[in-house]
Amino acid sequence: MNKTQTNHNELTHFDQAGQAHMVDVGNKDVTHRIAKARGLIRMLPETLALILSGDHKKGDVIGIARIAAIMATKRTSELIPLCHPLALTKVAVDFETSQDTSTISCEARVETFGKTGVEIEALMAVQVGLLTIYDMCKAVDKGMTIAEVKLLEKSGGKSGTWRVTE
After folding, report:
1. What is the rounded CA–CA span in Å between residue 24 and residue 118?
2. φ, ψ (nearest 5 deg) of residue 97
3. How far apart are CA 65 and CA 57, in angstroms?
4. What angle do CA 46, 52, 53 make, to 5 degrees?
5. Who contacts 154 (Cβ-Cβ below 8 Å, separation ≥6)?
6. Binding residues
7. Predicted local confidence at residue 1, as pLDDT
8. Are 39 and 105 in contact (CB under 8 A)?
């Protein structure tokens, strides 16, 4: 099933009085939850060449960004106020470079068996992975731009499967 919009007419993180609260997932079924997200960072061609050459004085930029992205998924509930802490069962982060567009894309796939989804964890992985690239390369290229961060798909739970239609 492809969906591009939610059918809900209410925000779930607010009670009837309009006060913020953590959503009660106690009565939800435990299911296999999967989410994939992607984003990219644009940079000068020289910056990408420096990353690809492996000559960056801070080390393996993409390898370090991958570790940062994975670590970020495990800390998501500490940074997003109403996000549930989750026991993640798998986190995979991949980077793809394009010399034609001077970009590095980051795609994260996060999985758990639980009562709530892992969309925010996947989005967090992508953002932190790309921010790590920015941090490591800002000395040579302050004009890098992080863009197009989005959820690609999610599955599991009552709402089933959702995929972005591009």
Report:
1. 16
2. -100, 150
3. 15
4. 85
5. 33, 34, 35, 36, 117, 118, 119, 161, 162
6. 82-84, 120-121
7. 37
8. yes
By the 8 A CB rule, do 55 and 136 touch? Answer: no
Enumerate the active-site residues.
135
Tokens encoding 118 = 């892992």
Report the alpha-carbon distance of residue 28 to residue 7 in Å, rounded. 19
Structure tokens, 1 = 């099933």
Question: How many CA atoms lie within 13 Å of 22's alpha carbon, on the beta-carbon side?
Answer: 10
Q: Is 90 exposed, middle or buried (0-12, 13-18, 19+ CB in 10 A)?
A: exposed
For residue 101, the tally of other CB atoms under 10 A from its CB is 13
Domains of the chain with CATH codes: 31-155 (3.30.70.640)
Provide the pLDDT for residue 21. 57
pTM of the predicted protein model: 0.85
pLDDT of residue 54: 80
Residues in the chain: 166
pLDDT mean for each 10 residues of the chain (166 residues): 46 62 68 96 96 79 97 94 90 98 98 92 98 96 98 92 88
- The string over 51-89, giving b where at least 16 C-beta atoms fall within 10 Å of a residue's C-beta and e elsewhere, is beeeebeeeebbebbbebbbebbbebbeeeeebeebebe
Q: What is the largest CA-CA distance in the chain?
A: 56
